[in-house]
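Here is one such tokenized protein:
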Amino acid sequence: MKRYARIENKLVTDLVETDEELISQSPFVVIWADVTNITEVAIGWVATFFNGGWTYAPMTDEELRNRAKEKKATLLHAAFDTQLMSALQFKVDAGVATPEEQAAFLANRQFCIEVSNIEKQPGYPGTINWPVMPA
């Protein structure tokens, strides 16, 4: 039985035990690295290719904060884009929003508030309970 780490964007995203040999489809997108003989590796760790082999380490607080900032920005941009594309803010301000649109606007606004406050969560940046974007 072999153990493999799935590496995406220099992060371990999955660990799999299998009798089959896993081969990377494209080394630039997803890499399956054999970690059978490596005892210290976990999902979320940074993977670095050095001297012909992979090394693994937990993220530093700085790396965790940087990743959180990136994800925060991505989520807020998506929420703002949703509001802009559906003109929710304009409809609410003009008083022409339907009850469903008003509810969607409020849910989107609450989502943005929760995302903007992730730094206040206990355990940040190591543990973040990311809010779910409203449908």
Remarks:
- The mean pLDDT is 92.
- The beta strands are 2-8, 11-18, 31-34, 46-50, 53-57.
